[in-house]
Amino acid sequence: MRNYTLDIKASPLTLAALPSQKNLVAIGCKNGHLFVYDLTGDGKLLHKLHYHERNINSLAWCPVPYSPLNSDQSVEPLLLASIACDRTGLCISRAGLDMFNETTIALPMRPMRKSTFRNKNNLLWSCVKWIKPSILIVTSGFGEIIKIELRPDLVCGPIVSLISDSHKDIIFSIACPRESTNLYLWSSCMGRKLIRTPLLRSKEEAPELPLEVPTLGGFVYCFSLSPVNSADFAFGLGDGRIYYWNVSNKRQLELITLSQSVDSKVLSLAFHPQDEGLLAYATGDGRVGVFNLTRKRNNNNLLKTVLANPIYRLCWAPFPNTKMVNDSKLALYAVGNGQIVIYNDMSLWTDPFHLKDYTQFNEIEDKLTTPVKRIEMAWKPNYDVVAIGNSNGSIYLLDGNTLKLKHVVNGHDQSVECIIWHPTHVTSDYSEESKYKNYFASSSHCIRVHQLNEDCTPSLVVEFKGHKEKINELAWSPHHNLIL
């Protein structure tokens, strides 16, 4: 790695290397300054010019050393295209000779698209790519991708045509492979979408729609797969958005934004194990809600907020003292602020129940000097046992029907971050129940795997050590037994 220093005051914004000579680099700067720099040796400033009045956004070298504007190919002017955030147009200069302005191509001052375009931020930004000797790709300030076809000797001027108007926002960057049988242009915009646009298609070829790839604008804190339909996938972000993705849709990679009114981090998600359309979520400020994915309107059902702290775990399970049958109504359990609350009536005005209303652990916890907080909760797939992880490293095993304490599992030195039960079935042998269905794994600074014996007493199977930090999440493989 080498450092080069310009001997003049400049604020570089963009640069582009010459394809045929890697030692030549064009540098676009603030206030419209443009430099051509030679990287040989200690570096040398070759040319500087000032065709633009404002910041230069993008540069592109001609892919061939000769000029496609002239018939004489013996001269190598090394044409350089530059575009700035003013409306002076696209400037093409002879960077290999005298930096004389070869031509200036005016860009459309109004949108070429038929649909309306609203530039909320009033930004001026354009990009340029020189993909063929006589073809340039330029983005306008209206979210459009424009093709500019140069003509020899500048007799009739260039041909300017619209390629795509798929973007609804300002395009900030574009990329295109130089050598490919099928040319595609990748572009990104403020709308957090990557769009692949086919280029240079002939009229005989079948039209190809652009491919839209959505991206994310925040940290992913949680995700959940639907147990009813494994193609349904949801994940929550730190910007308060919840995305729903049906991965079976191979024609279009589409993310559906569910939440527009959630202002806090989405920390937990849980699909309903029976109803395909229900998705529960919890946030960093203690709010809990349920989305109905089958509805297009009024699909967000916000529940009453009783926990003012982050909620890290949600579980769908039977209400206490309720026998589980095929179509039984399931309650929603939320773990946060060291407590566990139970939402049985999905209403904003109904108070949830507390776990301490059904079971007490005073005989164990009264002997301790520090209060014990509930951190984690995991139900066995058949709902006959529920495991609760605590802040002191202990795990309570409760009866799934009465929520009465059955056993206490000790072994972790610090709070239990995650508990997960082994799947009842695995895809490699789905005809029979797994003989490891009574195994459950828990994590803190280490991973411990326990087994429930025939008399429902837990016994340690194995312990894994080596992590220096807390282990936040575990997952059993749904395809093979005992892969964690």
From TrEMBL:
Boundaries of every Gem-associated protein 5 second beta-propeller domain copy: 229-482
BP-aspect Gene Ontology terms: spliceosomal snRNP assembly
Q: Which domain of life is it from?
A: Eukaryota
Looking up Pfam families in the UniProt record yields: Beta-prop_RIG_2nd (PF23775)
One term of GO molecular function: mRNA 3'-UTR binding
Q: Which GO terms describe its cellular component?
A: nucleus; SMN complex
Q: Could you tell me which PANTHER family the record lists for this protein?
A: GEM-ASSOCIATED PROTEIN 5
Its name, as the record gives it, is Gem-associated protein 5 second beta-propeller domain-containing protein
- The species is Macrosiphum euphorbiae
